[in-house]
Design a protein that fits this description.
The structure holds 2 protein chains of 2 kinds.
Chain A (H helix, E strand, L loop, with lengths): L2 H26 L11 H38 L2 H4 L3 H16 L9 H39 L6 H41 L2 H6 L3 E2 L14 E2 L2 H32 L2 H16 L2 H23 L8 H26 L2 H9 L4 H30 L2 H6 L17 H10 L7 H31 L5
Antiparallel strand pairs in A: 1-2
Chain B lengths: L2 H55 L4 E10 L2 H4 L7 H5 L3 H12 L6 H8 L6 H11 L7 E7 L2 H7 L16 H12 L3 E5 L2 H4 L12 H32 L4 H15 L2 H15 L7 H26 L2 H9 L4 H29 L3 H5 L20 H9 L5 H31 L4
Antiparallel strand pairs in B: 1-2, 1-3
Classes of the chains: A mainly alpha, B mainly alpha.
Amino acid sequence: MNLTVIFATLLILTAVGYFLGRQRAFASVGGRASQLHSLPSYHGAYVALWCLLPALLLFLLWMLAEPHILRAITIGALPPELANLPNNQLGLVLNDIQNIAEGNAARAGADPAKLAAADHLITWERTGRIAIAIAAVAAALAGLLWGRHRIAPALRARNSVERTATILLIACSTISVITTVGIVLSLLFESLRFFAQVPFYEFLFGLQWSPQTAMRADQVGSSGAFGAIPLFAGTLLITLIAMVVAVPLGLMAAIYMADYASKTVRAFVKPALEVLAGIPTVVYGFFAALTVAPFIRGAGQSIGLDVASESALAAGVVMGVMIIPFVSSLSDDVMNAVPQSLRDGSYALGATKSETIRQVVVPAALPGIVGAVLLAVSRAIGETMIVVMAAGLTANLTANPLEAVTTVTVQIATLLVGDQEFDSPKTLSAFALGLVLFCVTLALNIVALSIVRRYREKYD
Amino acid sequence: MTEAAIEAMQFRQAETSAVRVRRRYAAERRFRFYGVLAISVAVLMLALLLATIVSKGYGAFVQTEITIDINFDSAVIDPAGTLDPAVLATADYAKLIKEALYAQFPEATSRGDKRALYDLVSTGASYELQKMVLTDPSLIGKTQPVTLTASDDVDMLNKGYMSRSGVEAERRLNDKQVGWIDGLAAKGLVSTALGTAFLTHGDSREPEQAGVWGAVVGTVFTMLVTLLMTLPLGVATAVYLEEFAPKNRWTDLIEININNLAAVPSIVFGLLGLAVFLNFFGLPRSAPLVGGMVLALIVLPTIIIAGRAAIKAVPPSIREAALGVGASKLQVVTHHVLPLAMPGILTGTIIGMAHALGETAPLLMIGMVAFIVDIPGGITDAATVLPVQIYIWADSPERAFVERTSAAIMVLLAVLLVMNGLAILLRRQFERRW
């Protein structure tokens, strides 16, 4: 009796309800559908909704609660010496019991207490599944009968169905709000646990990033330092290099495509820029690690400079190339929004094309271009895969682009992909970094939008 | 002023203005040149990227093989002569290969030499023999030439990626091994063939056995979950915001939220998935279900914004005509507006899916970075996706994985090309200008 079977049964009952509703509607007017208030399909939908929604609600509530209830029952049935273990060891014991119950682990050599608990778990899970199956099907049948009972020629079935559909639409729209709330709450919750162990000011203003936690009290090098300034510096360095590459190239590309390019050039370059925008960032990271970084290293060594094999320059340049289409399309949009009358006035005064662009169009579109640059900065700050593959892992507080630096996103990725215990400050620091990242990108977006809105000139 | 003075002044003004005009035209030409330069750099970098990937990757579709005479000794495979499949399956096929190799190169006498000789074939070669015998048990007792997959070091040597010179201790194949391979090649027993392992096998630690099929199936499942979750949600939200929502603060809040979510870095969504879906709801780690849910949240703003634009583009006259014949608001939307807005919505969906296909960072957070060998069978089985597979292989030390990673990137880019092409086709075919 698995959950898919129960869900499928509910769906079948809903379909049955639909057909019964329609048939009942037709029967109540003796086949003359014009005497019904709503179309027969709405009567069918009315019964189907009455059948499905209460049962589905019950079913979803059960699915959410089942793991917690089963866990509580299993702990309650454990002998005292296992039940009173500290949390993480208890988790391991419960995992073992779960594996024995599912048949993943051998029953032969297992601890008899765990075997008994596993059997207990199996029995309760089976009982619970049967109970919810009966309850859901009963609720579905009850809803079906109630809906069918209510069918009458004067029933405003369409209104009820449409009201339910509108409520569903509203519920779907609030998913986006729930997502944001979820992001903020989850980041905040874990970060607060982190700040309980590492002080807030040490995290934001400390100069040493070396996230380690001691496994034993006497471990060498066990004191971790969680100062995030080197990470912020590394992020800013790589972002700066990326902007130095992307903004001039993106702007000039947009200007050339809008004003100078012939049709054939435009037909060739526009898809090329779209392809550049569509390439996954992991491919850029691979390219940076495989080709660009060794090339920069070789070029630097031939001049006599000492370039790290994972230099910030390599990651920054590739990130800049990735952002070019972004800057180009955004600034193309804002420059197109400048009215033609300004351009015409400038040409009438005898200006060349480049003078018009430099002295009329760009200043007029400047708020939009600044907004585009800020959005591109926000994109560069949040970029992960290029820097994970091409930038270094050790925090380094430097302004030299030829050295290896690490960024906030690299640290989040490496801290959470390993096998750390979930409560250690090492893992929780990733959430604190995520919170900082979220706040910074949010602030950048709000600033970009407000600049665009406040300084946008009204041309009409 | 005198005539001559006026003339001189005019001449000077004409001269300086001519110089000025020349200078301005030169500035114009320079500006245009900068534009050409910018475009050339962008296109050049794209070409360089694609050329690097293709040049490094096309070799992965070709696999080096070694042909040797194998004696399917019945004493080793089936001593009792029962032809029981269980016995045939567990026989020591490696011994048959070893004997064949030792017979080919009798000068390998020491233990180290013998092991080095066996290292020339892939670790999966014994399974290839097993499959041959299980499908055709009549092979037992015969001796015939068999083509076996070579190990990844031999493959790299054969394709020219591994140098034959240099300090022996630093090379993967020592001089004796290189000598044996050359000996086999001289007899024509080393060949290359179109390798099927890359497209049909799951992941493996051995490069010559590693394939992308597991990642492809995982990607298909994840994309399926993403599509099923995000398309209804996105269209419903777009319909509500465009058609039904009153202009109040709650609606403004939803719109601001959607625009903000579109700009949040994807790794933050991964953190959300980790904290809420894995830890709070207890969903299985590394499953396409959770990956699909996280990707659905990432793609949702794109679909909502594209959906709103498509619905807004439907002219009000269609809505008013439907209302005029007595339809209710919801009927107007479902019977008239949505079908007309569908091409735009579908185009936005395909673009969103293409974006989700390349997402790696959030899936790393929810654990899809594990070493998954089995092909996933459902959406709750542990799986990996193609971009994450690329990331894992890019980190692997073996030389042959560079080739595999590039080939996997080629597969990913091909799929993306098809998807984007489909979107463009849809847009061109069905989009109407009102």
